[in-house]
Structure formats: structure tokens, C-alpha cells
Amino acid sequence: MASSAPVPPPVPTVPNLAFRQLRGARSPGEFAAAVRRAGREIGEQVACDARYVGRVESGEIRCPNYAYERVFLHMFPGLTLRDLGFTAREQVRGRGARGAPAGPRTAPPEPQAPVRNDEESDVLRRAFMGGTAAVAATLGLGAPSPALAATIPAPRAGGRFGETEVRAVEEAVRRIRLLDDRHGADRLYREAAEPLRTAYALLDSGTAARQSTSDRMHSGAGELALSVGWLAHDSGRQEDARSHYAEALATARVAGDAGLEAHAFSNTSFLARDAGRHREAVRAAQAGQRAARQLASPRLSALLTLREAGGWAGLGDRTACEQALGRAHTLFGRGPCDADPEWMSFFGEPELESLEARCWSALGDWPRASRHARRATALQSPHFTRNLALYRAQLAVDLAHGGAPDEAAAAAEHAMDLLAEVRSSRIDALLDHTARLLSARAPATPSVRSFLERRASLAV
Known about the structure:
It is built from 22 helices and two strands. It has 460 residues and is mainly α. The protein has four domains: 11-100, no CATH class; 112-256; 266-337, Serine Threonine Protein Phosphatase 5, Tetratricopeptide repeat, CATH 1.25.40; 352-460, Serine Threonine Protein Phosphatase 5, Tetratricopeptide repeat (Alpha Horseshoe), CATH 1.25.40. A two-stranded parallel ribbon has the order 1-2. InterPro entries: TPR-like_helical_dom_sf (IPR011990).
């Protein structure tokens, strides 16, 4: 029997003027970049963007999750959450909020579904940051528990979906990206396929009351397809990845979402290069650049131009590659802006160096490749475990080709030090390639022999 309890009134939002004052003269995008930098300083990864800052300042986010709380308190030492304009957590969440009288700054409790998503995300993040295998297993990695799938509600009777479902899809995207940054794709791919099916089931069977909600659901489902496609790509399932990327591109075209289209072409170009389809890599990157013109994001255009450069390098066209690299550096040098997509949080100077290193590798210029790969490893934050392992593995290949076996073995060993946390078929393939090169060229060198023995022991 349905409950006869009255439905609570909508939660009023109160602008957070204190937080707005702390932002000062910085734009929302500039402040979001400062938040991400502060997070990296203390080992937290928060996907803060201009939209999140706007939600805080408008009062939509009344209390941040634990990760954001730690970052904000690090940015403003000596201040409390209340000083930052937030409502105390116990007044927003949990039983105390339902029974406590409202004060002058305290609004009624928030709906619980979005809050639960924030809390679950924080628990999952802390489990993996701490490296606790048993906790991770109970949350769905290394065990059959579908932790990622549980974040997206199944389609409702009548096929309607709303803000709860859209936010769940967006949270699933962030969750997958966070876990991939720390642990690589191999252990995540099968878990991530279920929320993707649920997201598209919502699109296929449902409608939204507002066009804006429908647009966000299309964008979220497309980004989720790209995230799952990337997990397939990084774990060596190239045909699965190609299918997911095509699905995302079709969703972008249906929704008229230029940002999603540019992202889909970026991933498609990357996959084509890895598969040896270099002409396709160039064409996909150029198509992505055309879509990106609608967004006015120099960093996005820089990334797509680097994808194009990688395609030209694979075709052996050094002149076209160098021209593309020059354009990419010019675009990158214009800096970040509010129009930069949230998914591009990985694209900083380390990734720029890494992508350029891969171009020189494809052209057989091993000294240049090694120089840029070494810079990528030096610049990369240790928090991004997967990327750091990848950069070190790429450096090892370049050094091995360039006739520096001792340095190559050391770089490969450093990459292997991270394999307890990272599972990536791409990284394994690079390390195996380095092992074959060193085994053929300098097997008697003590450092090489140590690396080869260690690598062989992992294959047993």
C-alpha cells in the first residue's frame, strides 16, 4: 500500500555567496582548474569544471562530497565548510536532517538518490586509492558484484526518465574514468558494459519531460559509450572498441552534440592509429577538428591535431606530421578555457609530450622520441598511475630502439613497479616489446638480465 505521508515541497536553493566571494576575479573555468590542481597536491582527483562551480555558487550543491571537502579545506586553510558557505553534512544527509528544524541558512534535506551516488562514488574512490583488495572486490572489481551497474536505475514503468537517471549516467562516466586513471582497463571492462546497456535502454524505451533532460541523457549515454569503448581499446579488444565508438558517434549525430562528436572522432582516430589504419586516423582527426570548431576550445583542437599528427607519422609523412605538431603546440599554448570538455582533464603537458613522442617513434627518430617520452614521465603526477606506467613503458621502448639498454631496462622496471595497481593490455604489450628488443640486442647486460627475469616470472 502506498504511504499516505505528504510529499515534501521542492528544496529551495540559496546562492552560496561566500563561495562566490572566494572565487574572486577568476572565471569559473579558471577556478575549476585551481581546484583540480589543489586536488592533485593532496592525492585527490576531482572532475571539477565550470559547471560544477556554477552548481555550488547557485546553491544546488549544498554540501560537497568528501573528496571535494578535503580539496576545498586544503585550498582555504583555517576555514570550515560553513565558512565556505556550505550546509553541515548532518543537516543535508542522514536522519538528523529530517528531524531537525530549519535554521536561517538551512534548507530541507536534499533528495537522497543523488546524495547516495555521491557517497558511493567517494567510498569506491577511497577503496581504490587505499589499494584495499578485499574492499575493492566487494564493490565489484574482481568479484561478480555489479557495483557500476547499480548506479543507473532501470527504466521506469511508462518509460519516463528524469534528473535522477541522467545524473546516474553522468556519475557512471566519472566513476569509470576515475578507476581507469588508477587501475587501467582490463579489470573494469566487463563491469562497465552493464551500465552502458542500462543507459541505452533508458534512451530506447523512455522519454523526458524536458528537452534539456533528453539532451543530457543522449550526451551522457554517448560519453558512457566512449568510456566503455576506451576500456575495450586499452584492454586489447579493438573490434569492441570500434563498435562502442561508432555507437557514440551515431548518438552525437542524432542529438546534434558537437562536443560528443569531436570526442568520438578523437577516440576513433586513436584506435585507428593503434590498429595501423593511419589514413583513417588522419581523416577521423580532421573530422573531429571540424566538429570542435563549434566549441571554441583550443585544447580540444590541440588534442585532435595531435591525433592527426600521429596518423601522418604512421604514414611516414614527416613534413605533414611536423606541420600538425606545430599547429598543436600553438593551440595548446593558448591555455585552458571554460569551453574545455570535462573528459579532457587528462590532457595536460605530460600527455602532449607523450603524444609527440609517439609521433617521433613512428618516424623512427629515437633520440627525439626518448627526449619527449622522458619529459612525459617527469611531468606526470604520480596520482595518475595508469598514465605514468604507460609513459614509462613507452620510454622503455624508445630507449631500447635507440641503443640505450640500461636506461630502457630501468624505465621498464619502473613501469612494472606499478603493475600491482594497473591492468592494461597496452602497457603489457609495450613491456613485452621492450623485452624482445633487449633480449635480442643486450641479453648479457646485468640490468637487462634482471628485467628479463622479472618479466618472465610474471608470465608464469
